[in-house]
Design a protein that fits this description.
The protein is an alpha+beta fold. It has helices at about 5-15, 45-55, 65-75, 90-95, 125-135, 150-160, 180-200, 230-240, and strands at about 35-40, 105-110, 115-120, 140-145, 165-175, 205-210, 250-260, 270-275, 280, 285-290, 295-300, 305, 310, 315-320, 330-335, 340-350, 365-370, 370-385, 390, 405-415, 425-430, 440-445. Residues about 1-25, about 90-100 and about 450-455 have low confidence and may be disordered.
Length: about 450
């Protein structure tokens, strides 16, 4: 729909940061590369302030938005504009000066489009951090230069590792409160590098910043002559993002079977869902799981438009050359592609999100891709000591915000990949069968040593 709007209309909705010198819409805006990133850190480390400063200095907010923030700052008795209010949207957040829920913000520069997930710092909102970071390409971990590395730093870094986030930016904030000390910066950097090695984090970047004053956020700071690296925005604009989802083995979980027989659609039968790995093309030979029935893709529909192929993560309807007995929760894969695993015994890492503890024998609903089944907790292998990053095998009581390695047994087998291979087919959630609350977020691992971080 947006592509049918004329350029002057688009221009009226876009911030000045994505307009060129002639004050016209950047020609490739709609096709610009997208980067998703999340912020994480302890309470009052400055996550919301950092995002506010990033939006403000990159000219990605409108005057009316800024005026609302100015008015709110005055009501709260502040002496200056509190940029954190740009992301703290809930009334409780503004009143308490904290982030409670995940706040999503969108902005663009001439080089990239961005989706930001501002996640809470309080330990009781760990579930929100897991949600906000689950699709991120980059995690920004903020550290207060005065306090150094704290428990939440390790917790959020551990979760970033579990979620397989490929890039971590360590933003050492409030450098103005330690006189922009290079010694303080190097000490925190050295300590965090040990944690990164233990957690096997893939790519780490370090930046000394002052979110409040804008040092090294968008523009380089004269207060850190000893730092020769990129600013935060420069790094976000240039950090390599290699989306390999379309190179994965093809996966298409069935969400809905569409049957139509009328004047417009005669004998129409299609299978709707989202491509969760790889690419499907018209003419491909496919295998339906778990029935192991074969067919060929006759057509791919995206709304009223027929496509020649569908990529991850497009939502489409696939029509087959033969009518197979397929239902919601089944999966289409390409013939001769790597098969997903198929089992009722699943090992996974779980972030526990509920006040009622996880116990062996507990029964829950499992939602995995488009399928749903019942499951019981068979074994708790260990939980993680966030402070030492060691695996605790003799304490198997899992409370809210604990991270544990467990085994579950499902009533019906799941068709899955390891989370390290496919984020979509390798993840699941556990739901209380009585209250229907989401109580756990799981990352499936076949090898119990994959995430063993004993030092």
């Amino acid at each position: 729909m947006l592509q049918q709007i004329n350029s002057s209309a688009i221009k009226s909705f876009l911030p000045s940061s994505i307009l060129n010198e002639n004050d016209s819409v950047t020609s490739g805006y709609l096709d610009m590369e997208l980067l998703r990133f999340s912020t994480a850190g302890s309470v009052d480390d400055g996550k919301s302030t950092l995002i506010g400063r990033l939006l403000y200095d990159s000219k990605s907010i409108f005057e009316d938005q800024l005026q609302l923030v100015k008015d709110a700052s005055e009501r709260l008795g502040g002496d200056e504009v509190n940029l954190a209010l740009l992301t703290d949207g809930l009334r409780a957040e503004r009143e308490q000066g904290i982030t409670i829920d995940v706040a999503y913000r969108y902005f663009a520069t001439p080089k990239r489009k961005f989706i930001i997930a501002d996640t809470p710092g309080h330990i009781e909102y760990t579930r929100n951090m897991v949600t906000g970071a689950s699709t991120a390409d980059v995690a920004i971990v903020l550290i207060d230069a005065r306090n150094g590395i704290v428990e939440q730093t390790k917790r959020h870094s551990y979760i970033a590792s579990l979620l397989q986030i490929p890039n971590v930016i360590v933003a050492i904030n409030k450098m103005d409160l330690v006189n922009f000390s290079e010694e303080v910066y190097n000490k925190i950097k050295s300590e965090y590098e040990e944690i990164a090695t233990t957690l096997k984090l893939q790519k780490i970047y370090f930046i000394p910043i002052s979110a409040r004053d804008g040092d090294n956020v968008v523009d380089s700071s004269t207060n850190t002559p000893w730092y020769n690296g990129e600013t935060l925005l420069q790094l976000l604009e240039t950090i390599p993002v290699h989306n390999t989802d379309s190179e994965l083995p093809a996966r298409f979980p069935i969400q809905y079977v569409i049957n139509q027989d009328n004047d417009k659609f005669q004998d129409y039968r299609g299978y709707a869902g989202r491509v969760s790995g790889g690419v499907f093309k018209v003419g491909d030979s496919i295998l339906a799981l778990p029935s192991n029935r074969l067919s060929t893709i006759k057509a791919i529909d995206e709304g009223p438009v027929e496509l020649n192929e569908a990529f991850t993560p497009q939502s489409v309807t696939i029509r087959l050359a033969s009518n197979l007995d397929i239902k919601r929760g089944d999966m289409l894969i390409k013939l001769n592609a790597k098969y997903p695993k198929y089992s009722s015994i699943i090992t996974l890492h779980v972030c526990w999100l509920n006040v009622r503890p996880l116990t062996v024998g507990g029964k829950y609903i499992v939602r995995h891709t488009t399928s749903e089944t019942l499951a019981s907790i068979e074994e708790i292998r260990y939980k993680v000591n966030i402070n030492t990053l060691e695996n605790i095998e003799d304490d198997k009581t899992i409370f809210m915000n604990d991270i544990a390695h467990i085994t579950i047994k499902t009533q019906h087998p799941l068709k899955y990949d390891d989370y390290s291979e496919n984020r979509i087919t390798g993840s699941l959630i556990l739901i209380d069968e009585n209250t229907f609350e989401t109580v756990g977020a799981g990352m499936i691992v076949s090898d119990p040593e994959v995430y063993s971080y004993n030092i």
